[in-house]
Design brief:
Number of helices: 26
Helix content: 40-55%
Radius of gyration: 35 Å
Number of domains: 4
CATH topology of the largest domain: Rossmann fold
Distance between the termini: 69 Å
CATH class of the largest domain: Alpha Beta
CATH superfamily of the largest domain: NAD(P)-binding Rossmann-like Domain
């Protein structure tokens, strides 16, 4: 039991305990003074032990009887006094205990003690999620499904209680605290050696900023990833070397621009960065022409600037005429009524984007616009996941989901640090390359996004493979991911990026020879990372992957020929060594 928790308990129970002990002491001592007689009529008094024994069962109203002799009138009278005295003391104590258990401060202390025990029991890398909104819940579920323990902190007790009744694959420790206070973050494990990442995804930009700053100051080994709705806050976070800052407005604009200019790149980008349950979008390319924009808030302004930058004609519908920066020709209204849309030129438009802060209004805009012009390209902002089924039923052409965007972007980079250069390379690559990669990745996990994984060829991370390369044995990418048990087939893996000497090679050729220090990004089926890690670390697994045969480690083989080394088993499969290494071996011989 935690010291502060124990102190609070005994502080509140001090008076009830004093009353209870005093009542038992008075009753016990009183019994020893009450005169009685034995069976022969001689004077007799209870001993201290006998008196305490009688008080114990009378105080609890059990009532065994009078022992060892029948009581005298005085003893019976004192028994009546003792019963009422101890029962009243017990009622007072039990009432205080019940009141204490219902006290909010005591409950908070109990919860903190439970959280501290839960965090102390974690003996593997875990993530600290600050904020339990839609984004936080998606992150907790996805991380738990990947067997990562999670510690959650949120100021809303109802959200914490709701999380407590859910089932998770890995340990989830939840605490109702204010994440803006550094002491609370330390209490839930920020400084623990097992804390590898802090995800600040509350709905308050200032809170996220403070969490990110606290993380970088108190635990520099820990990665800080944060949400920032305002550009100024995002820049402030980056100035504190926050490892990842996700601005949902910037993400929405990035995806919308790709949808206009690079449809294949958009499909790949959106699919890989929208969470583990995302489906490959079948969005048609937005057409050129007149567009209607409903809502001119923070997102609406950014969308309007993008459409203008693309050379498109835009008409804005906004209910609040006092907003700054409203473009000329803005129509007052919400866009949910047919006459407002007709005034904006809905019948001659090619697309409409509903970006208000109200999901009901956005759905109403889509339905009304589709009824007036069935050929419209429909884009919408889904503010909360509670209406997700309604948005799916509406079937928009383009949908923005801030919660999934933030969670998916963070999860992708948690899985592998080379995701950023890969995404940048794919955006700059030709559309045909993006299309071919989509086909290859789609076949890996039945339409679900593949898992990212990365590894570095080093003596620590891949000892078996590093030892072979150090001996000059050439191993290519195809050698590493080919399935020796099924000739002509490969593991469900795709090599996306190879980094060597700080230079990135996008989609490297399978004939590329591996070298010590190479850092690779791969995508594959869920769970394939464990199999690959075993191959990189285990001599026998690597020999089986490269040759299709196990190393001979049996007792008889070892006695006759000695233990077979990995280099000997693989050398028969390898066709060549680098010329310099081969010449050196000839000189040594």
């Amino acid at each position: 039991m935690n010291d502060s928790f124990a102190f609070l308990f005994f502080q509140r129970m001090r008076m009830p305990l004093i009353v209870l002990i005093s009542a038992y002491a008075i009753a016990t001592v009183g019994f020893t003074f009450m005169p009685g007689v034995d069976e022969e009529g001689n004077p007799w008094r209870l001993s201290l032990f006998e008196a305490f024994y009688i008080v114990s069962y009378t105080g609890s109203t059990i009532g065994f009887g009078e022992v060892p002799y029948p009581f005298s009138a005085a003893q019976r009278l004192w028994t009546i006094v003792s019963i009422y005295l101890t029962v009243i003391a017990w009622l007072f104590s039990i009432g205080t205990i019940i009141s204490l258990l219902q006290d909010p401060a005591f409950r908070r202390h109990r919860q903190r003690a439970r959280v501290r025990r839960g965090v102390a029991a974690i003996d593997q890398p875990f993530y600290l999620v600050c904020g339990l909104g839609d984004t936080g819940r998606l992150l907790v579920r996805a991380l738990s499904d990947r067997d990562h323990p999670v510690v959650v902190i949120d100021h809303d007790a109802h959200k914490i209680d709701a999380l407590g009744v859910e089932t998770h694959r890995a340990s989830v420790v939840a605490s109702c605290m204010d994440a803006r206070l550094p002491a609370n973050l330390v209490e839930v494990g920020l400084r623990s050696r097992w804390c590898v990442g802090v995800l600040a995804v509350t709905g308050d930009d200032k809170a996220n900023l403070k969490i990110a700053v606290t993380t970088k100051l108190l635990n520099q080994r820990c990665h800080a990833r944060a949400r920032a709705d305002e550009r100024e806050v995002a820049e402030n976070m980056r100035s504190f070397a926050t490892d990842q800052v996700v601005n949902p407005v910037e993400e929405y604009i990035q995806r919308l621009r790709l949808a206009f200019e690079r449809p294949a790149a958009f499909r790949l980008y959106h699919w890989l960065q929208s969470g583990p349950d995302a489906r490959l979008p079948e969005t048609r390319q937005p057409p050129r022409g007149h567009w209607i924009l409903c809502g001119f808030g923070r997102l609406g302004k950014a969308v309007h600037a993008l459409l203008v930058d693309l050379g498109l004609e835009v008409t804005v519908i906004e209910e609040n005429e006092t907003l700054e920066g409203l473009p000329p020709g803005t129509i007052q209204g919400r866009g949910t009524q047919a006459d407002t849309l007709e005034e904006a030129g809905i019948k001659g438009s090619v697309g409409i984007l509903a970006t208000t802060r109200d999901d009901v209004d956005n759905l109403s805009i889509l339905i009304t616009a589709r009824a007036l012009n069935p050929e419209l390209f429909l884009g919408v902002l889904e503010n909360g996941l509670s209406s997700h089924e309604l948005f799916r039923a509406a079937e928009p052409d383009f949908i923005g989901q801030p919660s999934r965007v933030i969670a998916g972007s963070m999860l992708a980079r948690i899985s592998a640090p080379l995701v950023d250069p890969f995404i940048a390379g794919m955006i700059a690559a030709d559309e045909s390359i993006c299309g071919k990669l989509i086909e290859r990745l789609e076949s890996l996990a039945d339409g679900l996004p593949p898992d990212f994984l990365s590894f570095r060829i080093s003596e620590r991370r891949a000892p078996a493979l590093a030892r072979l390369l150090a001996q000059g044995i050439e191993i290519t990418l195809d050698d590493l991911i080919s399935d020796p048990l099924q000739p002509g087939r490969r593991w469900p893996l795709e090599v996306l990026l190879l980094r060597r000497d700080n230079e990135n090679t996008l989609l490297p050729d399978g004939s590329t020879a591996l070298a010590l220090g190479d850092h690779m990004l791969l995508a594959g089926q869920p769970g394939i990372g464990r199999r690959l890690a075993n191959v990189l670390e285990n001599d026998n697994a690597l020999a089986r992957a490269l040759t299709g045969q196990d190393l001979h480690h049996g007792w008889l083989w070892t006695r006759l020929f000695g233990q077979q080394r990995l280099e000997m088993a693989v050398s028969g499969k390898q066709l060549r060594m680098p010329d310099e290494q081969a010449s050196k071996q000839e000189q040594d011989l």
